[in-house]
Amino acid sequence: MGCDSLLLQNEKIICTECNHNLPFTNHHILEGNDTTKKFYGIIPIEFSASMLYFHKKGIVQNLIHNLKYKKHQEIGTLLGKWYSKDLESIAKIKTVSEIIPVPLHKKRLEERGYNQVTTFCEALSNELNIPHNTSLLYRSRYSKTQTKKDRENRKEITKALFDVNFTEADYNKHFLLVDDVMTSGATLEACAKALLKIPNSKVSIVTIAYTLS
Ligand SMILES: [Zn+2]
């Protein structure tokens, strides 16, 4: 799944060579890491970490592509199991109440048939023993302009795309927001802002990959 080479009998999903070459970020042991810096002065975040660096034409790009477009959801399960071990070393992970995936819009969910972060979230949920909540945060409007990075568009996206469906039972919680790839951080920012509308809520962020810009 990382390089298209044939797997040996004892290899599963990712070959040994790709495995050795995976660009881990070590964000979980670096406070003030790149992912966290994205949100300085924009939204309050408890902690944030990305598992791998995303390089164009690299192993991680292949993994994400296979996970996102080729129905290989087992990649999310594997990476989620691995990353749980690292996340356990973050003290604040113990205060997380729920894992919240960045939702796909209904239309895209129907086209693709699944949300690419579901299996990653499920693996984190199982390994860390934290509930996985897919109904709290929802996408309120379809957007094709998500990849635009300039400041103005970022603000526009932040305003309108996501909302929360909460009751009093959702107050006072620490949400762990999860996405596949962080690039500008605009999507996660919009999601976090929606979650922070819930009284006394806290937000942390985890992504599978981080794009160096
Ligand atoms: Zn490989």
Shape: globular
Give the count of structural domains.
Answer: 1
CATH architecture field:
3-Layer(aba) Sandwich
Kindly provide the name of the CATH class. Alpha Beta
For the record, give the distance between the C-alpha atoms at the N and C termini, rounded to a whole number: 25 Å
How many helices in DSSP terms?
8
Q: For this entry, what is the oligomeric state of its chains?
A: single chain
Strand content: 15-25%
The stretches of 5 or more residues where confidence is low (pLDDT under 50) are none
CATH topology: Rossmann fold
Provide a descriptive summary of the structure in words:
Residues 120-210 form the Phosphoribosyltransferase domain. It holds the Pfam family Pribosyltran. InterPro entries: ComF/GntX_DNA_util-trans, PRTase-like, PRTase_dom. The protein has helices at 16-21, 34-37, 59-69, 74-87, 106-112, 118-128, 151-160, 186-195; strands at 48-54, 98-101, 137-139, 162-164, 174-182, 202-211. With 213 residues, the chain is of the alpha/beta class. It has one domain: Rossmann fold, CATH 3.40.50. Helix 4 runs parallel beside helix 6 and helix 7 (151-160) packs parallel to helix 8 (186-195). The protein is globular, with a radius of gyration of 17 Å. Zinc ion binds at residues 2-3, 5, 15, 17-18. Zinc ion binds next to helix 1.
